Amino acid sequence: MNIVVCVKQTPDTAATLTVENGKASWGEAPLVLNPWDEYAVEQALVTQEAEGGQVTAICLGPETAEDALKQALAMGCDEAILIHDALFDSADSLVASRVLAAGIQKLELVDLVFFGKSAVDTDTGIMGSQVARRLGWPSLNLVAAISEMDPSAKTMTVERLLEEGRQVVSGPLPAVVSVVKEINEPRYPSFMGIRKASKAEIPRWSASEIGLEGEVGSALTWPAIQVPAKGTTECEIIEGSDAAEIAGKLVDRLFEEKVI
Amino acid sequence: MDLSLTAEHEMAQKMVRDYAQKEVAPTIREWDQKQEMSPDVLPRMAELGILGICLPVRYGGQGMDFVALGLACEELEAVDSTLRVIMSVHVGLSALTLLQWGTDAQKEQFLTPLAKGEKIGCGAFTEPGMGSDVANIQTTAKKDGTDFVLNGEKMWISLASKADYALLTARTDFEPERPSDALSSFIIDLKSKGVTTGDIKGKLGVRAGSTGWISLQDVRVPAESLVGEEGEGFKITMSGFDSGRYTVGAGATGLIRACLEASVMYANERKAFGRSIAGHQLVQAKIAQMAQDYEIARLLYLKAGWQKNEGERNTFVTSMAKQFATNASFNAASEAIAVHGGYGYSDEYPVERYLRNSRGAMIYEGTNEIHSLIQAGYALGTRKDRPLRKEMPGFDADFWQSE
Prior knowledge:
The complex is a heterodimer. Chain A is of the alpha/beta class. Helices cover 28% and strands 27% of the residues of chain A.
């Protein structure tokens, strides 16, 4: 199978978002492979191990995003491609999905595309579905298990994790699948993979190389960014001789504060 | 001298950190309390290739360099010293000694399964009656035909009850011209007839690890078990310490970092006199000292690692790296307890474990007093590195990484 996994470089999950000079900033936070994408990479590799074929990791991002791709290579992906162009610097999800879909089309004969459920920085959670729509392929999102895979019949069956429970869905290949963390346990990069990844020359595709020219304008703009006012928290210990007295005082206080 | 880390180093360090933080840190307190080693640790470190990190691919290793070994040790000991102890004895004392001194046949038979993590190795030098006084080893290896017959007792041996092989030093010459000529080195299968092993309980620290004894009673081993030549045991043991001490120094650096990180987190949370204690200058002084010691310890082990990569003898710098980092980690752990106040005295926080774990490394792999003598010898010019019949090869990526 020809498998693509789309990954993103994001700040570490310990990072905090601040506003500096009217712009959102993650400060000096270390940049990592989006943690949700580790599950996507793992599932791509597991599928390759079962069905054979090749796994290519694609990332839209700045030059530093090569490090996220190297992490994917070190985990075991065969190839990695960075899509980088100044035209995409402030891409929203509409632009990003168009770019990624164009990259996938350039690869040709792709059977399956994996995404993590969302990126920890922008957290839209819709990229997989947007790319599927642009490719005209089925979108299977929030997938917690792949229960059947039949490359010869070009079909697959997955279990989607919904609030109401698990939904079993079958669909034709090629398809775009976004995965949740319940699907697997991502492997650590192997030392051999690390050695390979550190030496890898990652190809870069520009806008023109994926057939996108001219204005790709984002629909989304950020006219102003403000830090929400911090709430203040006060702690009040309610005392009493027994539980009934304390409960009574508590109810009175809650009425006073118009909480109940 | 280039102490910058490559992308390869950084990725390897992160991988080892992720393993230790995700898989060991959550349960280490319980294993420490039980005074047992988690049964998952050795198989998992083997599976991930950590046990063969810096050994050549042709011998089943992962083909990384000596700096990567140091970085791995730093990350492992930042979680618990017992993880780094595994690297010290398995990689440092046994596998790297075989890489330096072993014959091709010994590398195939012993080094390859060690590098793959299929077998576990330890170093057996210390005895009930001697530690630093290596030339006074009492375990004997007497020739009987072409075989050797070993008798004696080894004590304070990390992984004694877990290891498959021991790199062991014994007395083979009973009327030597010089005391150091009396010793020879052997690689012993600990399943051999006459070998018994056990663990020591009641240790101050490294309680989630295995420290034990090895008893040898008429243990017959073939001549092929001799590592190096007869009478080379002292030199082989000392060169093995250059590897082992490097891992101890790098690991203790990780312990200083753990103390620093725990102290910074607690100092920012805990309030006293109306503000977080991080705002108090005497707390800041402790944290500043930890930060400074971490940098010094790290630079020292990276220099030793760089020397190893270059194939330079590094006994002097490795000794300084080991002594400085272990002393500093003990001080850092003690000061981390001070920062934590009463909570630091309880196992609710990890810093009391850091203190207990730090003390052992000031004793093993050469007491820190012995290290002062080693360094004074170099500084005074009374100690010089003499050429060895077999030097530790420097890191050569082509040799290390080809099949």
